[in-house]
Amino acid sequence: MKVHYFNILLIALPLNILVSSPQKNPSITQKRPTTRLLCECELYSTTNYDNDPQMKSVIDNFNKQTQQRLHEYDERMKTTRQECKEQCDKEIQKIILKDKLEKELMDKFATLHTDIQSDAIPTCVCEKSIADKVEKGCLRCGEILGTAFPEFGLIGGTLVHSAAVNAATKAGMEAALVGLESVNGVSALLQENIKYLVTATNFNCKDALLESIEAIATPVCNSKPLITPVYCSIKSNTQGITFSVIKSKISDAAESAGYAANAKYAEMTSVGTIFSDPIVISAIVVVTIAVILLIIYLVLRYRRKKKMKKKLQYIKLLEE
Predict the structure, then answer these.
(1) Where does the signal sequence lie (predicted)?
(2) CA-to-CA distance for 95 and 102, rounded, in angstroms?
(3) Which residues contact 290 (CB under 8 A, 6 or more apart)?
(4) Helices and strands in the chain: count of H runs, count of E runs
(5) Residue 279: which residues within 8 A CB-CB, separation 6 or more?
(6) What is the spatial distance between Cα 311 and Cα 299, in angstroms, rounded to a whole number?
(7) How confident is the model at residue 184 (pLDDT cuts 50, 70, 90)?
(8) 183 and 225 in contact (C-beta within 8 Å)?
């Protein structure tokens, strides 16, 4: 009976609350925590805080570290400020130069006539400078000399050699004629035909000279003339002179002709003779002119490149 009564009371109580809640204004008390400030403590009072030696040392240490860091920051900023200042000065100079150039161009354009018609515009004729003309002229001369001079040198060397050979052959033939005229009976036998006996191929060969003489003397000796020539008498050994004497004299004549030809060739091909030759002198002059033109071309080309580089830098500055 008691348990049921307790349950009934528990159920009745919420019902009473629900019925009576719209008619009452409940008061709710806020929970306020108890707080205590540091300033209320005597330990952290203003007098104790300023007079404390530990706090003074902490404050001094903090001030020193702060000042040191500020000093280091100022030192670092000095270089940065200097770089920024230089960069700003450069930019200012560029701006001033650009404004100045724009102003000059505007002044020049302002002086032009504004009523220009299409038919009044003159055609642009680019006049080349003297340096460009000389440079191209030197280049053309260098190309011509570069292709023609090797052939010219080859022709000159061939002419010098052929002239030396011809002179040596002529000197050898003259020496051979002089030697043959001293041979007993040969000049009397051949008379004026002796100069046709010596040629450019046999003047230094004793066997060839002997065969040429025999080819002329044999028919004469075999014909048995009334007056026997001395050469035929010597050959038949009627004069008491052996034929070996004639052979030795002909050999001496050929040998002397060879010596004379070699001496003349050496003389014609010596350094003094070569440099006194007009062909060699003209070749040296041509080489000297070619070298001078090459030097002028290189100098003008360097100056032109330098000028173009400066012009490109100026155009780049204007575009900026």
Answers:
(1) 1-22
(2) 10
(3) 141, 142, 145, 146, 149
(4) 11, 0
(5) 156, 159, 160
(6) 18
(7) low
(8) no
Length of the chain, in residues = 320
First to last CA, the chain: 108
DSSP string, 73-126: HHHHHHHHHHHHHHHHHHHHHHHHHHHHHHHHHHHHHHHS-S---GGGSPPP--
Region 139-147 average pLDDT: 51
pLDDT at position 42: 57
**Cα–Cα distance measured from residue 199 to residue 168, given in angstroms and rounded to the nearest whole number:** 13
Kindly report the three-state secondary structure assignment for every residue of 267-305: HHCCHHHHHCCHHHHHHHHHHHHHHHHHHHHHHHHHHHH
The residues, any chain, with a CB within 8 Å of residue 163's CB and separated by 6 or more, are: 268
The three-state DSSP-derived secondary structure of 55-66 is: HHHHHHHHHHHH
Return the amino acid letter for 6. F
Q: Is 138 helix (H, G, I), strand (E, B) or coil?
A: helix
The residue among 99, 106, 98, 105 whose CA lies nearest residue 316 is 98
Of 280, 289, 282, 283, the closest CA to residue 141 belongs to: 289
Quote the CA–CA distance of 175 and 204 in Å, as a whole number.
9
- Which residues 6+ apart lie within 8 Å of 203 measured at CB? 169, 172, 173, 175, 176, 209, 254, 257, 261
Tens of pLDDT, residues 10-31 = 554 444 444 444 455 556 767 6
The residues near 318 (Cβ < 8 Å, ≥ 6 apart) are 98, 101
Say what percent of the chain tops pLDDT 70: 57
